[in-house]
Amino acid sequence: MKSVAMAACSTVLLGACVSSSTPSAVAPMAGKRVESDRGMVAASHPDAAAAGAAILAQGGNAVDAFVATAFALSVTDVSQTGLGGGGAMTFYDAKTRRVEHLSFYPRTGNDPLWAQADSSRGRSMGRAAATPGMVAGLLEAHAKWGSLTRAVVMAPAIRLARDGFIVSPLLSRTIASSRAKMQADSVAMARFMPRGEALRPGERLVQPELANTLERVRDGGRDAFYTGAIAERLSAKVKSLGGLINVSDLRQYPVTALRPLCTTWREFTVLGAPPPMGGSSVLEMLQMAEQSGVATAGGFTSEPDAVVKMADILRLANADAGRWRGDPLTMRVPARGVATPGFAQQRAGLVGGALPDTVQAGDALAFDTTAIPDACRRFDPYPALVAAVASPEPETPAAGDEPAEGHSLTSHLSVVDARGNAVSATTTVGVLFGSGVYTDGFWLNSSGSNFDARTRGINRYANSTMSPTLILQGNDVRLVIGAAGSQYIQPAITQVTVRTLAFGEDPWTAIAAPRIYASASQKDVEVEPGFTSAVYAALVTRGYRPVSRVADITMGGVHAVYVRKDGRRIGVADPRRDGVAAGQ
After folding, report:
1. Which of 24, 68, 108, 461 is most buried, by the most CB atoms less than 10 A from its CB?
2. At residue 450, what are phi and psi to the nearest 5 degrees?
3. At what angle do helices 341-348 and 304-323 cross, to 10 degrees?
4. How would you classify the pairing of strands 86-93 and 422-430?
């Protein structure tokens, strides 16, 4: 089993990882399930996971490993994330027993046109790009909680950009599907489609322009990216393509520290990502699963009643998420109310009832000031709304004015170090290769398309479904989990968590098992292969229309670290993606 444990160690980072002892279960794919008694990283690319493991081996903590992994993913998982994107991270400090959350998602700027609809409906590359927060967020997390130097944690990413890495079938496929974006920039075309076609699997992608940008950030910190030549070229390129980002937007970009959402579920304390992230849906769905009997069903794959109830739960939560979203600094977003046991109980009462064509959202505002569970008080969780913050009208987007996040893709990583510190972090550039704006070796995000009539405005964060989650049992981390995949993120996290912590399945079994997805606005239920025929029949009897889905990257790419009660870490990576786990 040494080869499985070592699979995540890249040739670029040879020697960075050490072999873990033989695991108790084996995944049939290299690096997808790894055990260790010390640190563990699970991420959506092997070289990036190896980068994080290398930092842990050098004495770095979970935040150091997170920063190193995220910068490396900006090089290797380049179609999904990058310096031109943003994200969020939830961090547990085992020494202080506090949980922290940073949001560094793309944001609109000062231009008044941000308050108006994009007349191009996403066809303008420049208009789709919002001010990126990735570099600011990673550097702020490192400055607050990291222990190694910036040069050390950025070194793996710089090597991967300068020396290159091996292209996977998935990356080759995403490049090929994004030909129009590549053709819009001659440098991008030279790097990703050097012969007029996508780099093939097994070829090497070298990104010297990105290496130069990373080196400038290493040497000059935040200012090297958000002021000066890089910022000026970024703004000029965006404006030449019809966009709105100006140099003052970049210079003034704020990373926001927010309190995590918190609830209890079974014997666990669940800590989720507050708005503008989508963590409240995960907390709501877990509680509905408990209150409706799903969590006690013992399984999904061959349990028709549990799957049907889960479909109801997904639709209810999807309706609530669609209504209660936005930038909490400028809008009324009762995420605490959504996450309360009382609201979940009210919504769970609808499971198994009438099956409407479209599910309506519940009144989370009515629960926003209810008492939080006692176990959450020590974390100083996300507060109730401040009454003075108004919700802009209209409450419902106008026809043809819906946000365009529906097909966005992302990248997730989970880390637990030897001391018990943990980070769950999700990052993105939006849709594949973001807006298509390429500058200084990186792609700018497409998050400017995530606004509609209710959420649009100047100087505000785009809303997102990203949900980096931590689950504790007492003072110990039990599960660090998150996912990629836009609207599939929260359903994937919920189903894997229920399988792992309620059904007692091995984390690899839970992550590889088939999933479902259901939206509030239709009765179609997307179903991956692997369920019994009785499950499909039960969905039809309930009134649903099962729709076959081949397991792929859009169904939710989960990366997680499970910590057993004896302290042993089990890192697992979703077979739907390129990722692996790497043990220290």
Report:
1. 68
2. -90, 10
3. 120
4. antiparallel
Residue 123 contacts residue 237 (beta carbons within 8 Å): no
Please give the pLDDT value at position 10.
41
**Residue 408 pLDDT:** 57
Backbone φ, ψ for residue 307 (5° rounding): -70, -40
423: β partners: 91, 415
CA distances from 292 to 54, 241, 286, 346, 360 (A): 44, 50, 10, 11, 19
C-alpha span between 485 and 412 (Å, rounded): 10
**Residue whose C-alpha is closest to residue 569's, from 422, 427, 449:** 422
Sheet holding 545-548, edge to edge: 516-518, 524-527, 545-548
Residue-level pLDDT at 213:
98
The b-or-e profile of 377-387 (16+ CB within 10 A means b, else e) is: eebebbeebee
Can you tell me the distance from the alpha carbon of 576 to that of 574, in angstroms, rounded to the nearest whole number?
A: 5
CB 257 within 8 A of CB 89: no
Digit-coded pLDDT (tens) for 151-198: 999 999 999 999 999 999 999 999 999 999 999 999 999 999 999 999
Burial class (CB within 10 angstroms; exposed 0-12, middle 13-18, buried 19+) of 196: exposed
Cross-strand partners of 271: 262, 470
Measured in residues, the chain has a length of 584
At position 540, the amino acid (one-letter code) is V
User: Residue 390: is its pLDDT beyond 70?
Assistant: no
Residue environment code for 117-156, b if the CB has 16+ CB neighbours within 10 A, otherwise e: ebeeeeebbbbbbbbbbbbbbbbbbbeebbebebebbbbb
Report the pLDDT value the prediction gives residue 231, as an integer from 0 to 100.
98
- Whether residue 250 contacts residue 227, with contact meaning beta carbons closer than 8 Å, is answered with yes
The neighbouring-strand residues paired with 93 are 98
Please name the amino acid found at residue 440.
Answer: D
Residue pair 514/302 in contact by the 8 Å Cβ criterion: no
Supply 69's token pair. 């992994």
Q: What single string gives the DSSP state of each residue in 341-393?
A: HHHHHHHHTTTTS---SSPPPP-GGGGTTSPPPGGGGGG--PPPPPTTPPPPS
Find out whether 584 and 40 touch, Cβ atoms under 8 Å: yes
Higher local confidence (pLDDT), 457 or 29: 457
CA distances from 578 to 29, 169, 358 (A): 10, 9, 35
pLDDT digits (tens, 9 = 90+) for 364-386: 999 999 999 999 999 999 999 86
Tokens read off for 556: 């939710």
The pLDDT value recorded for residue 27 is 62
Pairing of strands 557-563, 524-527: unpaired
Asked if 249 contacts 110 with a C-beta cutoff of 8 angstroms, the reply is yes
Q: Of 106, 57, 15, 90, nearest to 443 (Cα)?
A: 106
The β-bridge partners of 557 are: 484
The amino acid sitting at 206 is V
CA triplet 40, 43, 46: central angle to 5 degrees?
95
Each residue of 262-277: pLDDT tens digit? 999 999 999 999 999 9
